[in-house]
Design a protein that fits this description.
Elements (H helix, E strand, L loop, with lengths): L10 E5 L10 E4 L26 E2 L9 E4 L3 E2 L4 E8 L18 E4 L10 E4 L26 E2 L9 E4 L3 E2 L4 E8 L10 E7 L2 E7 L3 E10 L7 E8 L8 E9 L10 E7 L2 E7 L3 E10 L7 E8 L8 E9 L6 H4 L10 E9 L3 E8 L16 E2 L3 E8 L2 E8 L12 E14 L10 E9 L4 E8 L6 E6 L4 E5 L15 E5 L6 E9 L2 E6 L4 E6 L8 E20 L6
Antiparallel strand pairs: 1-22, 2-4, 3-22, 4-21, 5-21, 6-20, 6-22, 7-17, 8-10, 9-17, 10-16, 11-16, 12-15, 12-17, 13-14, 13-16, 18-19, 18-21, 23-24, 24-25, 24-26, 26-27, 28-37, 29-34, 29-37, 30-31, 30-37, 31-32, 32-33, 34-35, 35-36
Amino acid sequence: DDKGTYTPPTGTVVQDFEGTDFGSWTATGTAFGQGPATGAVDWQGAVTGFDGKGLANSFHGGDGATGTLTSPEFTVDSPYLNFKVGGGRHPHEAGTVMDRTPPEGTVLADFEGGTYGDWTKTGDAFGTAPAPGTLPDQGQVSGFLGDGLVNTFLNGDSTTGTLTSPEFTIDKKHINFLIGGGNHPADSGNPTAVELLVDGQVVRSSTGQDGEALNWASWDVGELAGKKAQIKIVDNNSGGWGHLNVDHIMLSDTKAPRVSQETSVNLLVDGEVVRSATGADSESLDWASFDMRPYAGKKAQIQVVDMNSAGWGHVMADQFTTADKAAKSVVQRADWTDYGKDYYAAVSWENAPGGKRYMIGWMNNWDYGQSIPTSPWRSAQSVPREMALRTINGQTRLTSKPVASLESLRQQHPATASGVTVKSTSKPLISRAAKGKALDIEATFSLKDADRFGLKVRTGAGGEGTVIGYDTTTQELYVDRTRSGAVHFNSTFPGVQTAPLKPENGKVKLRILVDWSSVEVFGGSGEAVITDQIFPDPSSTGVGVFAEGGTATLDHMQAWQLRSIWR
């Protein structure tokens, strides 16, 4: 529904880029130019959505330019920092660095000599010599060192082949190399992968992430010290992203850290990135917000970062404002059937028996659909849901709930809990029946004075778990999967999904379906739904209750273990 013109929360503007220079903000590199842009710069499409006359725009010199723009240090004394952001969609990746210089070590191949030297080639994917960069009809290749690299896009994705190094002795702790291209693991049947062979057997393997930009990968080979080995670059895939980019293979006693390829706005506290937002591959700026409440009283900085030199390798920012409430983007202001990252291509049936309307969605996302750490299957369907129109808080809303027949999978004797009060802590639910890889949970919480509260599912060693919570300050249901298990296979996967949900009579009601690789969360009367994939360790089967910033009470909970639909 059209909600009309959006007015963001009022606050104090700390930087609007309306001057002729950046003032006290410090620029590095060449991407941001000598001062604020007045809109689009040379060779850029039309830029919209910024306020006033100026904005920070890192398209100076095109997508190939990089740099940073950093505010002076300030003390966090407001709950939120609101701002506008646009440009490329390259999120910040934790643990990355901005220096591409490789560590010291022995280079096995840098592909700079105009030939493959004594490496052995099969098939037609590798051509007669290393590529000088991007090949015809290929997206822009970036991140390689020097003038040459292995690039199997020769004649497109259809070509296949292998490139194998001569034998060498492993005499250092790590093998580092730059890799990009398709995400087709060694065990996928048609891999695009770099493999380490010892005694003819594959003992290590890495693949790309469906992107042309190369970044460091590293194998810990300390346990293989003294062994004879070979590197084999394999392209057996002739479908989409059926190619590989490889460069600078080296032995080193130091692991090469991944290099930042972000186009983002970051909040730094004690020099560490604690909040980050990126564009949406669009020249239109939209509102974003950082929750700064956890950092009240601390010293912080705002940093606009462009470390990407490939397609959409730029960022734009404007109107940094401290405020008591969070600004919301167009996406956040929309009414969604499902607010999660993994509910797509839904199919519905009308006039089902009893006049019901049912719907099923595909639990996946095109951002990382080919990168999820599963083989040979790729995700699953959601449970069937019954859809309905209901009046909630005076508005007509589309709601959904799991079909009633799903309850036939419930095991007898559910785990129960009632009157559990938690204050600024987490508490495991120790009943055996409350643990499992497949659970159906119904829970009702009473609001007290906690900022956030809820349940943690699929919990395990090392703090692993998926957080299903409610934020009383924003009146939002959320799913935090940043520590849910395997999350680093794609930079857009980890994160927090939110859905607006008003409490009813001081209570929040949840229905949570937990499965081996997903959570489906239904809040209230089904007006707030979040569906997310998760990839926890099989041993992570715990459930816990938590509260942050105060007290909350779990009034009542029932948790049923579910039988498999296949057995």
